[in-house]
Design brief:
Blueprint (H helix, E strand, L loop, with lengths): L1 H18 L2 H10 L6 H26 L1 H9 L3 H45 L4 H15 L2 H6 L11 H22 L7
Helix pairs in contact: 1-3, 2-3, 3-5, 4-5, 5-6, 6-8
C-alpha cells in the first residue's frame, strides 16, 4: 500500500510540475519583447492549452485509475470485464486523446512556431531555433505510438517517444536557461 501511495504522489507531483510550464509559456512573449507578434500569440495560447491537457492526462493516474483499480480488485469476473472497459475508455480519452495526442500536438506546434520565430528574428541564438525544430519534429513522430492505440497498424517509430520527448524537454530547459542568461536589451 505504501508503494501505491508513493506512486500516486509521484503522478500528482509530475502533473503539477508539468503545469508549471504555464508561467514561462505565457510570459515568454513579454520577456522576448514580442507581445504584439500574432503568430507567437497563437503559439503561446497553444502552448498553454498543451500544458493544461498534459495536466489532465497526468492527473487521471491520481483521480481515475486508483478507484478503477480498487473496483477491479474487489469485483467478480463480470464486473472486472466492465471495469476493464471503463479503464480502456478513460485511458484512450484522458491519456491518448487529451494528454498525448492533443497535448503533444499543441506543444509541438508551440515549439515549432517559436523555433521559426527565433530563426527569423534572431531574438534568441539561432542554434536554439534549429535544435527546437529538430526535436519538435522527432517528438511529432511519437504520434505514431498514440495513433496506433486507435488504428492498429499505424506506422510507429519506436524511439520517437524517448528521443523526442527527452530532446524536447532538454530543449525547453535550454530555452529557459538562454532566456535567463541573455543580456537584456534596454529601450533607448
Amino acid at each position: 500500500m505504501l508503494c501505491f501511495r508513493s506512486l500516486l504522489w509521484t503522478w500528482f507531483a509530475t502533473a503539477w510540475t508539468y503545469a508549471i510550464l504555464f508561467v514561462p509559456i505565457l510570459l515568454l512573449p513579454t520577456v522576448l519583447g514580442r507581445r504584439e507578434d500574432a503568430p507567437l500569440g497563437v503559439a503561446t495560447f497553444a502552448g498553454a492549452i498543451s500544458a493544461l491537457l498534459a495536466l489532465i492526462g497526468f492527473l487521471r493516474w491520481v483521480f481515475v485509475v486508483p478507484p478503477l483499480a480498487r473496483m477491479y480488485q474487489d469485483s467478480d469476473t463480470t464486473n472486472r470485464t466492465a471495469v476493464a472497459a471503463a479503464w480502456l475508455a478513460q485511458h484512450q480519452y484522458g491519456g491518448a486523446l487529451l494528454g498525448e495526442h492533443l497535448g503533444q500536438l499543441l506543444g509541438v506546434g508551440w515549439s515549432i512556431t517559436l523555433s521559426i520565430i527565433i530563426l527569423r528574428t534572431r531574438v534568441l541564438p539561432r542554434w536554439l531555433g534549429l535544435v527546437g525544430l529538430i526535436v519538435s519534429v522527432l517528438y511529432l513522430f511519437n504520434q505514431g505510438d498514440i495513433m496506433a492505440t486507435a488504428l492498429p497498424g499505424f506506422p510507429v517509430f519506436d524511439l520517437a517517444g524517448l528521443i523526442g520527448s527527452s530532446g524536447w524537454g532538454l530543449w525547453v530547459a535550454a530555452l529557459g536557461v538562454v532566456v535567463l542568461v541573455r543580456p537584456i536589451a534596454h529601450a533607448p
